[in-house]
């Protein structure tokens, strides 16, 4: 806990942390409200809920070749700021589309806003890598996990409350405000040019198709030369399948099996239970990170969460499902803190944007495919139990895969690119 307090003495990190916090809060509120709106209005067409999630994941495939290159070649601070500004403007446009009730335009704007938001994370992650030391990476990963747990605890519940109170328009307005706050906080950061432009300054007219293609290829070559990165990225691809399933599973099992009449209220309760368990799991995992190897944390977390995801699909009552949800929440932080603390230790700061530029689209590709399959097959060939078995089985598969591949690379947990230490003191 002392390390977490100390890291906030870094002003730049504090600003970046809170910018991410506000941006993520608005996004979660917007997703929760949109899903409820569609489930309410199109209750006989559950594929709309999956389609909504698809509009948040599929856009990555349209911009994946650009996000990493821009994060490494252009000013990372400006990329993050303009990403927030554009998302805020698109939120206002989305309010108009909802008002005129034209669903094709609603989905188009969701797609476009999501595409723009994909430029934010690689740029922000690369900046954070540059302002922290190697010993602070795991601390920052623990903080990110705790933040995610708080969103799980309050985000969906807050989104549902805003939807009930102010409607979908009110939830989208919250998105606009949070994007603007995030941009202002990032703009307030005072950052060294070595962090913002680690590969030197480039002009927009230099980023032609050939330049972008070569940079994108360099990112792939860099990954393929590092077996550990290859193994981690294989895991990220499977995590995309998991994310796709987890994004709709709770709503589906509550609405179509356990609590058809009261599913909204139980979604709030489930969010609280899951958030509390993830928060507790984050605290325990952060403490255990000093006693366990990072790969051990990842494998333990995957085994625990995967087993209980499978079991939760066979719940006979809501209360059994809530109990399994709590156990899943205790295991997931081990995975996120383990990988989140490991990745910046082994990636050169000059390549972080391009590495992230490969990780995110691969995750979103598998997530998009999963959501597409769910939208087409749910209640036809894919059952509630089958959906849980798919997601839990993927977690267990990655856990076994990592059990046989990661231990040989355990010494790489301590490796840090030489250029990191030069910029970490800023």
UniProtKB/TrEMBL annotation:
The keyword Membrane applies. CDD domains: MFS_MefA_like. The chain crosses the membrane at residues 12-39, 54-73, 85-112, 161-186, 228-254, 266-287, 294-314, 320-343, 355-378, 384-404. InterPro entries: MFS (IPR011701), MFS_trans_sf (IPR036259). Gene3D superfamilies: MFS general substrate transporter like domains. Keywords: Cell membrane, Membrane, Transmembrane, Transmembrane helix, Transport. The keyword Cell membrane applies. PANTHER family: MACROLIDE-EFFLUX PROTEIN. It comes from the Bacteria. This is MFS transporter. Its main location: membrane. It is found in: Cell membrane. It is a multi-pass membrane protein.
